[in-house]
Amino acid sequence: MIYVTPDYYAQFRCIAGDCRHSCCIGWEIDIDPASQARYEACGGAFGQRLRANILRDGENACFALGEGERCPFLNAQNLCDIYIHMGEDALCQICTDHPRFRNFFTHRTETGLGLCCEAAAALILTKQSPVTWVETDDGAPTEEPDADEEAVLAARDELYALVQDRSRPLQERLDAVLGRCGMEPDDRTPAEWAEIYRSLERLDPAWDNVLDALADAPEQLFEVLPATLDTVGEQLAVYFLYRHFADGLDDGLCPERAAFAVHATRLLMGLMAHTAMEDGALSVPDAVELARMYSSEIEYDEENINTLLEQM
User: Fold this and answer.
1) What is the pLDDT of residues 191-216, one digit of tens each?
2) I need a labelling partner for 61 at 20 to 30 A (CA). Which of 48, 118, 167, 230 fits?
3) Residue burial 39-78, b: 16+ Cβ < 10 Å; e: rest
4) What's the pLDDT at 227?
5) Is there a contact between 55 and 61 (Cβ–Cβ < 8 Å)?
């Protein structure tokens, strides 16, 4: 089996208590069966605390979120008491994996880091060189590569090459991606897109403030993007293509998924440019926060993604 990661993947480190938006707040935390069995068998006072904070629904289990939708094991220092009392290997699978995502194919598994994590977003947005891919092969036998998979992965490689062609302005590169997939550039205004996003399910009230800013932005926001954001935009576009394009194997929407990657990139670049105009400059934390919020609101809600694909 071949395992693929972006070249920045190994640099990722959870910043734990320094995180401004802990993944242990506001998310339902499912407990996998192996972890549940370990928690049920844990002795002493901590074992009692574990079991008292698990909600069970048949074979499914999750932690009962407390005040402010905090995980009951997230302490006052925003550190995990399960990690502290039982060690890293006692974390349930979702806590071990987050913010990683995986795409599975017959002969390879691709792993990436989700933008919803501010540490991952900072790593992606501040990368200056083009992303490359690290492949390892564990030698385990696999099925023959599927022809449809091979075709989609080859097409995605072509889109990477278009996005990473730094001899051209990013706007031209993004239009080239659309052209390669037979899609037209979108001509809707920021205000029109703000209304579309307001129709989606929303998690964080702060996202409403971002949509208000989008609605008030100049109509040409997506057309006149500063070249200073080209590298950030390139990394965003590669990220969205890596994460979402091959899912078209399941729904037949590869062109729409490419258009989504272009749209999400232009939207975030436009929001970053608008923030810079309003604040006089764009800080890395501001850029990271916009990307993190977008990812949390959109990428982790399948209905939101499907609605946007319909809009493409």
Assistant:
1) 999 999 999 998 888 999 999 999 99
2) 118
3) beebeeebbebbeebeeeeeeebbbebeeeebbbbbeeeb
4) 87
5) yes
pTM more than 0.85: yes
DSSP per-residue letters across the chain: -EEEEETTGGG----GGG-SS-TTBSS--B--HHHHHHHHH--HHHHHHHHHTEEEETTEEEE---GGGB-TTB-TTS-BHHHHHH-GGGS-HHHHHTTEEEEE-SSEEEEEE-TTSHHHHHHHHT--SPP-EEEEE-----PPPPHHHHHHHHHHHHHHHHHT-TTS-HHHHHHHHHHHTT-PPP---HHHHHHHHHTS----HHHHHHHHHHHHS-TTTTTS--GGGHHHHHHHHHHHHHHHGGGHHHHS-HHHHHHHHHHHHHHHHHHHHHHHHHHSS--HHHHHHHHHHHIIIIIT-HHHHHHHHHH-
Helices 302-311 and 190-198 cross at an angle (nearest 10°) of: 140
Cα distances (angstroms) measured from residue 152 to each of 131, 181, 285:
19, 11, 35
Tens of pLDDT, residue by residue over 33-84, are: 999 989 989 999 999 999 999 999 888 889 998 888 888 888 988 888 888 9
